[in-house]
Inverse folding.
C-alpha cells in the first residue's frame, strides 16, 4: 500500500508539472510512515547530488524490485 501510494503520488505530481524535488516533498508528506519518510529524505538527498531516482530507492531496501525496475525503465 505504501509503495503504491508513493508511485501514484509521485507520478501525479510529475505529470502536473512539478519538479522531482517538489514531488518527493509531497510524497513524503502523504506517506504517513516514518520509515518511508526517512527513505524519501535519503532519496531527495541522493537526487540532489545527481543520482537517478532508482539507485537510492534500491539502497533503501523498502521498495520492491518491480517498482525500482519500472522507474529505471521510465
Amino acid at each position: 500500500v505504501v509503495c503504491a501510494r508513493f508511485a501514484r503520488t509521485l507520478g501525479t505530481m510529475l505529470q502536473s508539472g512539478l519538479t522531482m524535488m517538489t514531488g518527493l516533498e509531497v510524497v513524503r508528506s502523504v506517506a504517513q510512515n516514518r520509515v518511508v519518510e526517512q527513505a524519501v529524505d535519503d532519496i531527495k538527498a541522493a537526487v540532489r547530488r545527481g543520482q537517478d531516482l532508482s539507485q537510492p530507492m534500491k539502497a533503501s531496501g523498502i521498495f520492491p524490485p518491480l517498482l525500482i525496475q519500472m522507474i529505471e525503465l521510465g
User: Anything to note?
Assistant: The mean pLDDT is 94. The chain has five helices and no strands. Residues 28 and 34 are 9 Å apart (CA to CA).
